[in-house]
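Appendix B, Record 12. Input sequence as logged:
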Amino acid sequence: MNTNMQISSGSTTMLIENVKKSLKRPAEWLRQYYSAVMEREINDRQTWSLIEVQAAFFAGVMPADYSLLLRAACCLWFYLALKRCRRMFQNI
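Logged structural output:
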C-alpha cells in the first residue's frame, strides 16, 4: 500500500517555528531566573554565557576519573568562559 503525504510549506514552517520555541523555552526560564536573582534584566547572550560557565565548571569538577590533561582542559575552558562572561557583564 503506497500512501503519499503532502506537507505544505506553511505547515512545515509552522512546525519548525514551534520546535524552535520549544527548544528555547528552558533558556527563557533560566533567563528569567537569572534576572530575578541578579535583580536586573539580562539578555539571551548573557544567559547563554552564564550557562556556559556553569557547564564548564561542572565538566571540570564533577567527574572524578578524568585524566589530569582532560581536567586541565576543562579548567582552561572554565577560565576562558568566566573571563568572557565577566567582560559581557561589565559592558552594561
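The two ends are 62 Å apart (CA to CA).
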